[in-house]
Write a structure and sequence with these properties.
Length: 450
């Protein structure tokens, strides 16, 4: 760790350890003090980026870390530049850097955890699980790896491994809130809503300000059909919120509760309140995300023209944001993707195909590649090319209830009712912290009933 100040080193390590326990609010002051003690401490700026309380702080800290990276050690340089590459959509470059990091430090648990995170994001779950397990073998007390292992195994459908990992996480950090929060999220996935709420309540007993657990309780209540109770929980979060990000989270999930109830207008109203907070703060990146989400709501509820208007405003907002050019370019690519979706919703297949072909040429990285396959699959679905739809959607984001339901529709069209039932059940019982679940849960249940 390259710093001229032992005090900066001490503060960084203390802040890093808190952030690894998902206590970013407590970590940030220490990390800020670390870079005050040594303004040229590259890893200190990197650590602050990871614990940042706003988009502006994240990008400012990361930019400073990158500027100082060449003066740091090779390991620090790789960590910093890999985070920068991932932020700017250079996914293969990020994977290569973390692979180099593990080769340089094969007995470092954090290196393996970082590599596992990249594989997890690429939905290469077996590789991610192997890296997380290696991290826990190197250091059985390294808590983040148990958490990440649990989520990767859950996504892979390896539920016994996932549950044990989350239980190990609570064993290693029994006095922290996040392990109980993570285990609660696993229980939610398995449809064990009351047990899940019990674990979330344990987290809140430890830390009454732990906003993720308020969100978790509300989602359990939504999945149980207790929509007013969910909104009450979100009002509790709003009242207890320590910053505007938490207030926006409260309004975001309030909107989800309304959408699950079929009340689009109330959902939009809640999101507009969150948008006003972002606008007040000049947070154009969050404003862009809000416009995009409102566009999705109108698209999925049958109003593609209004959706198109919101998507356009999303691109205009991100263009004003103080973010790297690569982030703005991703927004412009997203405009093409959204244009294809709008055309599909209007049954304009020629425009949809043209936009999809354009997106195919510019899509980059695993996330956009999966989105590219989803577009191709949805076009095939609209044309009744069932096998093509199944092949393309099978390469899309399988952690999306929208994709799972589209796959169910394709198998239904093909006449494979066993596969249809399996996929419709996966969509209906997705049971995760997922806003898009509101769009398809009832439709998937109706498909199963029929």
């Amino acid at each position: 760790m390259t710093t001229v100040s032992e005090e900066a080193r001490r503060l960084y390590v203390e802040g890093r350890d808190l952030n690894e326990k998902l206590r970013a609010e407590d970590a940030r002051p220490l990390l800020r003090q670390a870079i005050e003690a040594d303004p040229d401490f590259a890893t200190g700026h990197y650590g602050l980026a990871q614990a940042a309380g706003s988009n502006d702080e994240f990008f400012e800290s990361l930019e400073r870390a990158v500027a100082l990276a060449d003066g740091a050690s090779e390991g620090e340089r790789l960590m910093i530049l890999a985070l920068d590459a991932g932020t700017k959509g250079r996914a293969d470059e990020q994977l290569e850097m973390y692979t180099q990091l593990v080769e340089l430090f094969p007995e470092d648990e954090r290196a393996h955890n970082l590599l596992g995170n990249v594989y997890n994001g690429r939905q290469e779950y077996d590789k991610a699980i192997a890296e997380y397990r290696k991290a826990t073998e190197i250091n059985p007390e390294f808590s983040p790896a148990y958490n990440s292992l649990g989520y990767a195994a859950r996504a892979a459908g390896q539920f016994e491994i996932a549950e044990k990992a989350f239980q190990d996480y609570t064993r290693v950090l029994p006095e922290e809130a996040n392990p109980y929060d993570s285990y609660a999220e696993f229980l939610m996935k398995r449809g064990r809503y009351d047990e899940s709420i019990e674990q979330y309540r344990k987290a809140l007993e430890i830390d009454p300000t732990f906003q993720a657990s308020y969100v978790g309780v509300a989602n359990d209540q939504i999945l149980k059909g207790e929509f007013e109770a969910a909104r009450g929980t979100m009002r509790e979060l709003y009242d207890a919120a320590e910053d505007d990000n938490e207030r926006r989270q409260s309004l975001f999930w309030t909107a989800a509760s309304h959408l699950h109830e079929g009340n689009r207008e109330a959902a939009i109203e809640a999101l507009e309140q969150g948008f006003d907070i972002a606008e007040k703060n000049g947070d154009y990146l969050s404003m862009s995300g809000d416009y995009s989400l409102m566009g999705d709501i109108f698209l999925e509820t049958g109003d593609p023209d209004r959706a198109a208007s919101f998507y356009q405003q999303s691109v205009e907002a991100v263009a004003k944001a103080d973010v790297p050019e690569e982030v703005k370019e991703a927004g412009r690519r997203g405009e093409i993707y959204d244009g294809a979706r709008v055309a599909l919703a209007k049954d304009d297949l020629e425009t949809a195909k043209s936009k999809a072909a354009e997106y195919h040429e510019v899509a980059t990285g695993p996330f956009e590649t999966r989105a590219d396959h989803e577009l191709a699959g949805r076009i095939a679905l609209a044309e009744g090319r069932w096998d093509d739809a199944i092949a393309e959607l099978g390469q899309a984001n399988r952690q999306s209830p929208l994709v799972l339901f589209a796959l169910a529709q394709a198998h239904h069209g093909k006449g494979d009712h066993e596969a249809m039932r399996r996929l419709a059940t996966e969509a209906a019982d997705f049971n995760q912290l997922s806003f898009p679940l509101a769009y398809v849960r009832d439709d998937a249940r109706e498909m199963l009933a029929q």
